[in-house]
Records
---
Amino acid sequence: MPKKASARKRPATKETKKPARQRAAPVRAALPALSRPIDTFDFCRSLIRDVPNFPKPGIIFKDLTPLLANPRALHIVLDGLAERFIGEPIDAIVGIEARGFIFGGALAARLNASFVPVRKPGKLPAAVDSVQFDTEYSRESLEMHKSSLREEARVIVVDDVLATGGTADAAAALVRGQGGYVVGYAFVIELAFLGGRDRLLPVRVESCIRY
Ligand code: AMP
């Protein structure tokens, strides 16, 4: 019987030599050393910059760019929102221009859902459905490509900030107009004193950081 090639012994080199069996390192040891606890939204809150009188006098703009610049904080808010919907069948994330694209796109990837942009007028190239609404600042419209959603698609509407709720409510109207079902809303920041949540109820509203 011919000898199997694999049976022939070759001298072990540095690359092929098996490492000595080691005791498994404790899981905790794999975590990076941190100078402060990061598993709370307080850390993320500390990275939100208040810009007074932008875009209009009297408005305190919640600037999320410092949070976006911090990879840990970005993970915390994305995971924090995603875990609230994990295990639920979600067909699409509808993200509202412009900052809703950042969080909505990443959330769609985490939840294995498609991403559908809702944009300001004239930005989407193909035929659109459109809706008008009032914001804290002015009268606006939003558009979504026609046939973006299948009938009874389960959708989460995502934006960076919930203020009066008009913008998210308008995006939901676009979703419902295409036969979709709004399962929930997800925001990084909720300006609770403006009562936007009440406008969106009874649909579930999730947010990470409340003011
Ligand atoms: P609203 O329709 O009143 O809920 O307003 C929400 C939309 O306006 C979101 O797309 C936000 O990006 C933006 N927005 C409203 N108020 C603020 C604020 N104080 N800081 C940052 N963005 C805001």
Note: Residues 57 and 174 are 31 Å apart (CA to CA).
---
Amino acid sequence: MAVRNLVLVLGDQLSPDLSSLKAADPAKDRLLMVEVREEATYVRHHKKKIAFLFAAMRRFAEALRIAGWQLDYVPLDAKDNAGSFTGEVNRAVARHSPERLIVTEPGEWRLRDAMSRWADDLGLPVDILDDDRFVCSRADFAAWAEGRKQLRMEFFYRDMRRRTGLLMDGDKPEGGKWNFDAENRKPAKADLFLPQPHRVDPDTITQGVLDLVAQQFGDHFGDLLPFWFAVTAAQAEAAMEHFVEHALPLFGDYQDAMLEGERFLYHSVLSLYINAGLLDPLAVCRRVENEYRAGRVPLNAAEGFIRQIIGWREYVRGIYWLKMPDYVEQNFFKADRPLPDFYWTAETDMACVKAAVTQTKEEAYAHHIQRLMVTGNFAMLAGVDPREVHEWYLAVYADAYEWVELPNTLGMSQFADGGLLGSKPYAASGNYINKMSDHCAHCRYDVKQKTGDEACPFNPLYWDFLLRNESKLKGNPRLAQVYRTWARMSPEKQKDYRKSAAKVLADLR
Ligand code: FAD
Ligand code: DLZ
Ligand code: SF4
């Protein structure tokens, strides 16, 4: 059968309503899905992330065939697999001689850039369609940003609430306020009932993928087993229902909390499914809103959750496309320290960092406060090169794609964009971690000690960071009080801080 359009479906486009699928016709067009080494190795992704995507891709391909599509699926170990999207698209064009290629735009700039050369290379028209799985299109975000001095998420979020109608009471926000974060900063206690995320046993398709990943990517970071991620839309829906029933009611209260040995707390662990296309972000938000309307979850939980998705998630995507490709080069503090080895080995005495890295290795997951206030905070305080920090985050989390990871890492967590995303750096001493977690009770360092060998390393590094970057930060009104506190310290105390920080930094080498 002559093929009219060849439709390439990427690994994070596993959505039946994808724009490229809507533009195609099962009777005339052919779909193409490919497992390619280049995507698994441009950063060396966590084994679980590769396994999740390959298994989910294989199950999605199966569902598409059942729905009547003609589909070429190229597994990683296929003879002649060209190893890259460009190579595999070339091979598929040679096989089918289509009239044109259709693809929904990819989430990463690197790939979008490569695709812009495909029409010339392949000698056929290439239609790159908008990815309409987001509430705010790239063009709408650019229009929103146009002419604004500051691109504050909170204002963008209000527009998204109005646009979607989520948690609106006419033209007013439900409950009279846009944001209930003031109620959302409770530290968790170890005796709370802590739900666990929904787990799925691997079927034979997933088992085949696990064997392949063990064989082909055995030297990548991270544990492959136990593997319990959902790999189909139905399984991901079950994970969402499980979250809504068991964790959502307390999601808001304990959103910023951390507990030793408790990896998930009241978080949803849905980002990997949403980002790969197994769950529709707006449908998830509507489900959460319904729970609130039915009186089963409080407003602070529903609002807090919905804000993360139609607020932060949409906003970081907008920023990414607005600012790339230069964004990745930003390094406001000119930080140049290599990423410490313990980001890969978890071999550190800092209990909070050890917990975050260990669970990252075992689960390909850490929740937001661990990413922001533990591993991210430490890297910024220590002056680690933001590019290395970015590549670590992109590699180690199952939900990481550059469009969402980069603004979170480079902007929110490292302040490497000089304040586009946040009005001040998320820098904190051990005191913050002690307030929000029980890690310090399990740590060989003493969070109360400010300087000296027993002191929590975050404490001297916090001041050292502020002083190293004084010329860049002192004019920031939100830091004026902090710099005044430093100025009031005795010269001996100041010297002790700097000496302790120098020792911590020297030991990192
Ligand atoms: P929950 O706490 O249950 O939140 C619900 C949902 O809201 C998430 O599933 C996610 O879809 C969305 N969400 C929450 N916060 C954010 C945010 N800041 N940006 C975008 N979406 C958000 N998120 C990713 O999806 N991919 C990444 O690669 C990624 N990298 C990050 C790197 C750093 C340094 C930081 C500080 C944050 C990063 N985040 C990233 C955001 C956030 O940490 C994760 O979305 C969240 O931890 C995922 O776990 P969850 O599904 O249990 O989230
Ligand atoms: C992350 C990833 C990996 C590891 N492997 C593949 C793959 O083999 N085939 C594929 O289609 N997609 C893969 N992906 C997801 C892509 O990297 C992702 O589509 C782009 O980065 C754009 O977001
Ligand atoms: Fe982390 Fe410092 Fe607490 Fe140890 S004492 S767990 S290093 S904050």
Note: DSSP finds 24 helices and seven strands in the chain.
